[in-house]
Input
Amino acid sequence: MTVERLQGVSLADGHTLQRYWQTAPVILEQAVDVSALVPDTETLIQILTETDLPSRLLTGVEGSTFTLEHGPFESFATPKKPWTALMHALEHLFPEYDQIRRSMTWLPHWRFEDCMLSWASVDGSVGRHFDQFSVFLIQLNGRRQWDIGPWATQSTPLVPNQPIALVEPEEPLATWTAHPGDVLYLPPNMIHHGVSLDPDCMTLSLGFRAPDAGALLEGALETLDSSQQQIRFNDPGRQHDGAPAEILASDLDKAKEAIMRYLDEPQVLEHLLATRVTAPYLEIEPVDDFDDQDIDPLIDSMTQWELDPGYRMAYVNQTLYVNGERIGDQTPSELLHLANTRAIQSSDIRKLESLWRDTIIDLIRTGSLIPSENDGT
Output
């Protein structure tokens, strides 16, 4: 297997990128204009020391034992050993990062997890590893050398006594140096190792959520109500031909049938998936900025509103889910448009009735729906 290199392909080019999604790595040369995307180091230090955004500091190189520290940090001084600082959920701070993932309309919004920035010294890395989700790695500043591949399998061993899940070196499928503007797409379970070649090497990672079966089944237990508890294991006409304590293969089949009957109940499966994929990456305490009497004049004074980047909306058959909760069914077109475009006009807000208008007002009150920067008023 070779790793293809493409030129003239942007992240918005779903026609091309769908061929690689979840199946093969691909290199996109000069796919992103990063001239306005590189933060200064003072800003990064402020993020590490003055915000509660998840962050980590890794020091070490392959072949040695890494050290791992979790932020927020009281102060930040660059370590003597090669280091990498990782900062998550930066779409909350940088609208331009959020705009990149919003441009990828060939993927649903709910598939997105977060924007993580890797800031590294020369020789800094996070070690050779693999992820269980898709990721686009955008080189913002400096150069990073990548070993790409091979695939990890269930038998791929992890390096012992490391603070993070690392794997031993193997012959990669390709070795490549990323320059600013280059992008590397990696599907799940593709082993990779990126090493910084320059000071202040910065790589922006767009990660995509992939809920595991265990999490979905956990959600099934949380939503099981009294009526659905009538779906039970049963085995009419049983002819037991095993030992008294033995669970037979036929018993396992009956258990599976009971689970499938539950999943086939109306709206159960939609609820399990929709609540999981709309759960916010960060639980941020909402700020109640407005009194009720201030909301209507504020709506009248603005033209357009936009969702905060951390806010999650999705729908199934016109049933709306917001930040992990089911809001209601028969969702009006104005709210579906908001979910799809993450923007809504004040004129459309005024058309809404009862529950749906209350939903919008609550978003405005808590700062989850904010006036558009391009509002022409």
